[in-house]
Specification:
This protein is mainly alpha-helical. The protein has one domain. Helices cover 76% and strands 0% of the residues.
Length: 254
Amino acid sequence: MTDKPQAPTPQTIQDVLAAMQLRLDALPVEPGPLREFLGTYRRTTAAVGAAIDQNVFEDPPWVERWDVAFAGFYLDALDAHLNGAGVPRPWRLAFGAPATLPPLRHVLLGINAHINFDLPQALLAVISDQEFADPDVVARRGRDHERIDGVLGGRVAAEDKELGARSTLTLLDRALAPLNRLASKNFLREARQKVWLNTLELHRARMAGPDVLAVRLAELEVLSAARIADLLAPGPVLLRLAVAGFGVLLPPPG
């Protein structure tokens, strides 16, 4: 068991980057399920911070609050795991993946758990019920949510190169690399579209009361964990994603 790194709760993206670096420095230097995703996530967070500074978004202060809240779900899960505490099942599966998996697989597992399970909760945390009642605010939040796709898409090639440098690639892997990058962008876009729909479902559940919200969050956890289990199964990951999709979608309430 590893002692949890002590640091103030992040309030800005720079705080998040510092918190991530603190945890990277505390992890073993060997590649593995924890280090691969954390390194990728830190670089992506830096890219989001740069996009905020460049006024890519309609409401930069809100995007920063959202990104900080989003990272908090992951950092809390990582700290709990390092300290031997319980974590949500999607993260338990991602953190427990065999260290022998390729770096890209570890990153896909982490991205999947974080986007499918954490992101709707992060959006819910930074969009109040009063804001959900304002169509103009909801539309603005939705557009900024979509703009993240451009930031993430811009990181795909760089991350592919970063991870590929530490992987043993066959000639077929190298030949398929451009297709894989395109597929990754499409998967992320598809997942984030489903995230927005799931966020709206969670908002409706929150309006109905804490018990209803708890039920819907439990459903989201089960669906997200099932997708992680799919990615852990032997065989071609991208082919399975092409069939089943990267994201998950909450069914209508029963």
